[in-house]
Amino acid sequence: MEEHKALEADTKKTKRKIKFIFTTVIVGLLLISCLALIEFNQLKLANQWVNHTYEVILEVKNVLYQFTLAESKQRAYLVFGKASFLTDTDNTIQDLNQAINKVITLTKDNPSQNFRAKELNNLIYKRIDVLKELIKIKDTNHLNSETALDTFNKGQLITQEITEEANNFIQTELILLKERNKIVEKSSSLTNLIFILGQLLGLIFLIYSYWLFKELFIKQHQFEKHLKDMQNQLRSIIEGAYDMIAALDKNLRYLVFNKAYKEEFTKLFGIPPQLGESIESILAKNPERSSIIKSWQTSIGGKNDIQKIEFTINNTINTYEIASGTIKDDEGEIVGAVHIMRDITERIKEQNKIKDSYIELNVLTEELKTKNKKISLLLEMSDVILISSSIQELSNIIAKYCNKILDSVNGNFYLMKASKDLLETASHWGNPKASSKTFVQDQCWALRLGHIHYSTFHNNELICEHINVNDVNKNVGYICVPLRAQNDIYGTLYLEMPLLNEQLIITANEKLIIGTFAELTSLALSNVRLRENLKYQSIRDVLTGLYNRRYLEEFLFKQVNQAERTEIELTILLLDLDHFKRINDMFGHEAGDLILKEFGHVLKNITRSGDLASRYGGEEFIVVLYNVGKQIGRIKAEEIRSAISQLNLKYGASEIGEITVSIGVATFPEDAKTAKDLIALADKALYRAKHEGRNRVV
């Protein structure tokens, strides 16, 4: 009885321990679950902030893109005056307003960024006002006025402010993104730690509970019913577990396993396990899956083991996490092993999906960075090429930026000559080999078709005739991009790009960049050609190609001042064609124009590069000889007179006859001290030459 009471007391004590342990386990698991839920919510919130930051950055870059597009279309309208560009500008401004309003909405949670977004909005509205002001000036045909220039410069300054403000905005968001990523990492690490601690604590409490049950079984071995009840209780715990659990003795014979384990084992091996049956005898019939025995053998040897094993079921790979632990008696001797299996196939799939998503996000981020970098370069290039002063300067700029924007690409920039019959290389980048230095328009399919032309040399494709097939690298394809503006051809871009599996792979972004680059280049070429033509027309005589009187007066004023400072001589020749009115009366004004053109041609060929030949008016011409005295000036005048007298011109079938010229010569500072007096004295000398019989130098 005393033993029974002692056993009963020990049983009650053990039950109290078990109750305390299970209560502690439940409370601990609840606490861990709460902490895990809190950390998961914090992780979710942190991820939302990260996504919010990405959205803000993308919207700001969209603002920059829409803003740049609006400027480009406005400039196109200013250059070409087409109403469609003005309509496109209004549409783009609407998109820009929507984009900046979205940025303001997104940054309401951040007062400083919201203030900066509003500042950016104000700057954009200022720039839009300047755009509208320039359009009004364009509509009133005052685009070349000083007011237009001031307005344009004002717009450029505001553009720079917008760019700087947007870049500062993005940098601030990137700093926030870095901080929020740190929060995500910290929250993720803490969540993982909580889950690991929870699993460890659960395993510890489970092992301790098992030990208490075992102690209770030893003390009450004489009470078979009580022992059976405890076994049933333990069985219920194992059966109620989500994991697949089995226990084996030292000879790897099954002591116990739950229903989940039996079903999964049968599915894997085609044979249901039996209590008391050795797993080795079962796996002997499936030798290809005998690796599972190693887990138990490791436990029997005294070491716990956790491993992942893959099994192929119906051509589907399933992954299992198998944890094996030792079973020991009261003396610490190993008597068996416990085996816990868990199907983690879906978990691994989810992890792989998350991993793939991060990889895809990184790829998209890198592509976005590359695209933004190239767009920035295009914006930078557009500012530079629109203020280029010459075709040569523009050619060098195009080569420089094409090398920057189009990576791993060699190429040539071909410029259409003024005669419209030939294209020649104006600049190049890298080391292009296959294309000729010059070619005619019909030798390029891009110019004939009016759009970009691609070829790889590996298929039956159209090959441009300016491609030297013998010099072609078979690992390289080429692209020809026509440069057109206002239905006029200005040139072409020739690009050599590496092939991938004998294919010319060009992404949509690359096509967009190439198209935008070509459009900007075409507009710049049109702009420079227009400025050069206007400049040429403002200082040149249309008929003879010589400098006009206005340019002569400015040039002569500067040359006289420079000659005075450097104490050198300056001689002018005033020339007048003899009996020019009679030629006009006899043969007509077209014959007179022919004589004037030939006369201008003679003056161009005889004068030096530092001298100046100009048409003074009617049939009068002036030649300025720099650093030439009167004696050499007279010799030069005689040379011109002789060359004119040797002209033998025909108008139709009629001989015009001998053409002569009278020349008056005056020298600075010997004859006069000012340009006005110098011309007056040369005019008097010319009058004397006429009076003395013409065809002479005085």
Describe the structure.
With 698 residues, the protein is an alpha+beta fold. It folds into 4 domains: 2-209, de novo design (two linked rop proteins), CATH 1.20.1440.210; 243-343, Beta-Lactamase, CATH 3.30.450; 367-530, GAF domain (Beta-Lactamase); 540-691, Alpha-Beta Plaits, CATH 3.30.70.270. It is 60% helix and 16% strand. It contains 17 helices and 17 strands. A 6-stranded antiparallel β-sheet has the order 8-7-6-11-10-9. Strands 2-1-5-4-3 form a 5-stranded antiparallel β-sheet, with helices on both faces. A 4-stranded antiparallel β-sheet has the order 13-14-12-17, sandwiched between helices. β4 and β5 form a beta hairpin. α1 (2-80) packs antiparallel against α2 (83-106) and α14 crosses α15 (589-606). The termini are far apart. 26% of the residues are buried. The model has no long low-confidence stretch (mean pLDDT 77).
Summarize the structure.
The protein has four domains: about 1-210, de novo design (two linked rop proteins) (Up-down Bundle), CATH 1.20.1440; about 245-345, Beta-Lactamase (2-Layer Sandwich); about 365-530, 2-Layer Sandwich (Beta-Lactamase); about 540-690, Alpha-Beta Plaits, CATH 3.30.70. It is about 60% helix and about 15% strand. It has helices at about 1-80, 85-105, 110-140, 145-220, 225-240, 260-270, 280-285, 290-300, 345-385, 390-405, 445-450, 510-540, 550-565, 580-585, 590-605, 630-645, 675-690; strands at about 245-250, 255, 305-315, 315-330, 335-345, 410-415, 425-430, 440, 455, 475-485, 490-500, 570-575, 610-615, 620-625, 650, 655, 660-670.
